[in-house]
Amino acid sequence: MDLATLAALNAERAARRAAVLVTPLAGGPVRLVRGGDDLAGDPLGPAIGEAFRSGRSATIATEAGEMFLTASLPPPRLVLIGAVHISQALAPIAAIAGFDTVVVDPRTAFATPERFAGVTLHAEWPEDVLPGLGLDPYTALAALTHDPKIDDFALTHALERGCFYVGALGSRKTHARRLERLTASPEALSRIEAPIGLDIGAVSPAEIAVSVIASVIAALRRRPA
Q: CA-based angle 141:188:173, to the nearest 5?
């Protein structure tokens, strides 16, 4: 790989943008494909698209010889709004699943290192923290406080930033009132999963945490290539 391609790849990584390197195994120039590049008409388009979707590198056979596709995707993040019991159960599960996890809650009685050991914790209002976190298409956000003063900004910001998953705790009636308050477009608001999580009949905080991480993983792995 030449230095210019390496520098371009490192720039994409630093900016938390996805990229795929296409390397001819028999030798030849290495091609860098950035997320969002137009792959229409590219014979490798479907394979490159699958690499973007799955994050898996692979060798593929082409008319020009074998190519190795190196997938370079940002590590997925999960931002939890609310230092609640569900978050306490969800944070370690998310870490095991490979997510960098952040908890945000201005209520200092709940957002304590003792309750969230080893987790990045911000005992501040979402509007003060989230803009600096750089939410992006490889970030999921779950609003779990039931408090509009805390959840509403976070949900709107996550939709604006294109997070791959946005979910909110609450009943359908609660969510209907939430939709009346939020100012995003109907199309954007339809992306909020509420009630949050995969419908497995979850009752306890731990069970709800399992349902949430299942929905998050499904959204990450089934998103369009």
A: 75
Q: Which residues contact 108 (CB under 8 A, 6 or more apart)?
A: 123
Burial pattern 133-169, b for ≥16 Cβ within 10 A else e, equals bebebbbbbbbbbeeeebbbbbbbbbbebebbbbbbb
Q: Which domains does the chain have, with CATH numbers?
A: 3-72 (no CATH), 77-221 (3.40.50.720)
CB 30 within 8 A of CB 2: yes
Q: What is the pTM of this model?
A: 0.86
Q: How many CA atoms lie within 13 A of 104 on its CB side?
A: 23
User: pLDDT per residue over 120-169, tens digit each?
Assistant: 999 999 999 999 999 999 999 999 999 999 999 999 999 999 999 999 99
